[in-house]
Write a structure and sequence with these properties.
The chain is an all-beta fold. Helix content is 0%, strand content 55%. It is globular and about 50 Å long.
């Protein structure tokens, strides 16, 4: 099984899809997911998805991230055919254990949305889109990997 994952910072997540020659990035705090065609070393916007609502206060020095600031996207990965984006939509100080995994096709459209009621620290999807692997915290506070089957 070949699983692809990229490193990311916690402000912007990004990955290039090898098969479709697409590039996607998502922002942690504004809810933007932008899909680009990569043509002749240029990025051409294919679709811009806006999810959630902005709750970021601007001050003189830029954006201020607070406990009530909404955390939008947190991670991103690819399979052979799709992009997957981890979306929370919860305030930073929320204790709710709700995450969504958005399945985005090569046209840049959300094709499916999966709800996970566990905290997800990171994830990847098998190339055949059948299995989801998540890094989560156990009740004892230890990291563990959980495998789940994705519905077709």
């Amino acid at each position: 099984m070949n699983l692809r994952k990229v490193s990311y910072n916690k402000q912007i997540n990004h990955i290039k899809h090898e098969k479709n020659n697409l590039f996607i990035y998502s922002t942690s705090f504004t809810g933007d997911i932008i899909i680009y065609d990569l043509l002749n070393n240029s990025l051409i916007e294919k679709n811009h998805i806006k999810i959630g609502k902005d709750i970021i206060d601007e001050n003189d020095t830029g954006y201020e991230i607070k406990g009530e600031t909404i955390k939008h996207t947190d991670d991103i990965c690819t399979s052979n055919e799709y992009f997957y984006v981890l979306y929370s939509g919860q305030p930073m100080n929320s204790s709710l254990l709700k995450n969504y995994i958005l399945k985005i096709n090569s046209d840049g459209k959300i094709e499916n949305c999966y709800l996970a009621n566990i905290p997800i620290e990171g994830f990847c999807v098998s190339n055949d889109d059948k299995n989801l692997f998540v890094i989560t915290l156990s009740e004892e506070g230890e990291y563990k990997i959980v495998k789940a089957s994705l519905p077709a």
